[in-house]
Design a protein that fits this description.
This protein is of the alpha/beta class. It is built from eleven helices and 13 strands. The structure holds NADP nicotinamide-adenine-dinucleotide phosphate (NAP). NADP nicotinamide-adenine-dinucleotide phosphate binds next to helix 1 and strand 8.
């Protein structure tokens, strides 16, 4: 049974640690609904780009704290953690955990995590209530970070949610771009599947969670069709009217250590919680709707 989606939460002030692809899209969507948005970037060039979009950005490279945290966090009601953790932990928490804990206005924290916390399921289904079993260093760091965010706000009135995101795609970052750029590859590893998620659906889910805060809750954020990545490339080629590249056997494919780590685990993400608890219906339930929408908009 699904619940009715709640309307957009009352406008507040979001601070996004890491105004990257997802953070910026969320910022733009919220600003369209009357929110104030600020956040952190690592480079001076990105500061100007953010402020051109109406986002107040501050320099934060994870090595030292923000210059003026009291003023930076004044009035912040919602916070998105979008910076990947280092071996030392989450840079935002390391430098600003105490500042954020003492905030009188903060209500909601969303932490962007990854399904690597489940470890390898050999093609089986991974549900949020499953015991995490990360194998990769990446997955272990994420689980530590998820838990650190929750622990930091236990006993406060701030509600912390973790979102385990499948492969993010959207305008400017998808198989269509790879095909157009000539960088698309089909890596053939029999039985290997991945979920993915359109960035518009991520923002929809984050906003739905803001309307229904639930401290310690974890959500798989994924589409409804785990499939080989080659299927997506072939479909993008079909949409663009070009021949797909020849498949390369996994064993002989040149892959970055990060990509190899993705291929070393195989799971299908269960996403019932998104509908049952957040009332979300995905706009792009599979890559087919997602790529068609991107193509229509470009
Ligand atoms: N991409 C995926 O498919 C995927 C899947 C699951 C989870 N995730 C995770 O979900 C989050 C959002 O993903 P995304 O693709 O939207 O991320 P993204 O575009 O890479 O944005 C991450 C942001 O964090 C900043 N950042 C990175 N390391 C930092 C550090 N050490 N100190 C300070 N800032 C730092 C980046 O700055 P710069 O712009 O200067 O790099 C960027 O603003 C990330 O944590 C990502 O790892 C991604």
């Amino acid at each position: 049974m699904s619940i009715d989606p709640k309307p957009v939460p009352e406008p507040g002030h979001l601070f996004c640690f890491g105004l990257g692809y997802t953070g910026t899209l969320l910022a733009l969507r919220l600003m369209g609904n009357g929110w104030r948005v600020s956040g952190s970037v690592r480079k001076k060039e990105t500061l100007a780009r953010a402020s051109d979009s109406g986002i107040r950005a501050y320099l934060f490279d994870g090595n030292s704290p923000l210059a003026d945290p009291d003023n930076t966090f004044a009035g912040v009601t919602h916070l998105l953690g979008s910076i990947p953790p280092s071996e030392a932990g989450d840079p935002a928490l390391i430098h600003h955990g105490d500042d954020l804990r003492s905030s009188k206005t903060l209500r909601w924290v969303g932490y962007l995590s990854t399904p690597a916390v489940y470890g390898d399921r050999q093609g089986g289904v991974a549900r949020e209530e499953d015991k995490p079993n990360p194998v990769s260093a990446r997955g272990k760091r994420r689980l530590t970070a998820e838990r650190a965010w929750v622990k930091a706000f236990d006993g406060t009135r701030v509600s912390v949610q973790a979102f385990r995101l499948a492969g993010i795609y959207g305008p400017g970052r998808c198989a269509l771009d790879q095909v157009r750029a000539g960088t698309a590859r089909i890596v053939d590893k029999p039985g290997q599947v991945f979920n993915r998620i359109h960035v518009d659906d991520i923002t929809k889910i984050l906003i739905a969670s803001m309307a229904r805060p639930d401290h310690t809750r974890i959500y798989n954020v994924a589409d409804t069709e785990a499939c080989p990545s080659g299927d997506v490339i072939r479909h993008a080629c079909f949409l663009l009217g070009v021949d797909p590249p020849a498949p390369i056997a996994f064993e002989s494919a040149e892959l970055s250590p990060m990509a190899r780590s993705f291929y070393s685990e195989c799971k299908r993400l269960d996403t019932n919680r998104l509908t049952k608890e957040l009332g979300v219906t995905l706009t792009h339930p599979t890559y087919r709707e997602g790529l068609a929408a991107i193509l229509g908009a470009t």
